[in-house]
C-alpha cells in the first residue's frame, strides 16, 4: 500500500473501523514505514491526551473527528515546513519542529 492510501485509512484505523484484513495491511505498512508509523503514534497520543482529560466520558464522535482532522492538518503543516538536511548523498533527515512535543488539547474546543 502507498503512504497516501494509509493516511486515508488512519482515521478509521484508529477508530477501529477497519476489517481485520485492512488492519493487517496497515500494520504491515507501519512496520516498514517510519513516516506513517510516526503519524499513527502522534494521532494516538492526541487521542490518548483527549481521553485522559475525560476518562469517564467517551468523547463524541464529532469531537474526535474534529480532533483527528486538526491533528492531521497540523502534521501536514509541519511536514510542509520541515527543513530537510542532507547528511550524505542519498540520505536525508528531517527535523520536525513539533517532534517530541506534548500534544496540547484546547479544552475550549470541546462544547
Ligand atoms: Zn507510509
Q: Major sheet: size, sense and barrel closure?
A: 2 strands, antiparallel
Proportion in helices: 55-70%
What is the rounded Rg? 15 Å
Low-confidence stretches: 85-96, 98-104
The proportion of strand residues reads 5-15%
Question: What coarse outline follows from CA principal-axis ratios?
Answer: globular
Q: What structural category arises from helix and sheet content?
A: mainly alpha
Task: Give your account of this protein's structure.
There is one protein chain. The protein is 59% helix and 8% strand. With 111 residues, it is mainly α. It has one domain. A two-stranded antiparallel ribbon has the order 1-2. A hairpin with a 2-residue loop joins strand 1 and strand 2. The longest helix has 21 residues. It is globular. The protein starts with a helix and ends in a 17-residue tail after the last strand. The structure holds zinc ion. The site of zinc ion has 6 residues, from helix 1 and helix 3.
Short description:
Helices cover 59% and strands 8% of the residues. With 111 residues, it is mostly helical. It has one domain.
Short key terms for the protein model shown above:
111 residues; mainly alpha; 2 strands; 8% strand; binds zinc ion; two-stranded antiparallel sheet
Fold topology:
Elements: H1 3-14, H2 20-32, H3 34-53, H4 61-81, E1 84-88, E2 91-94
Antiparallel strand pairs: 1-2
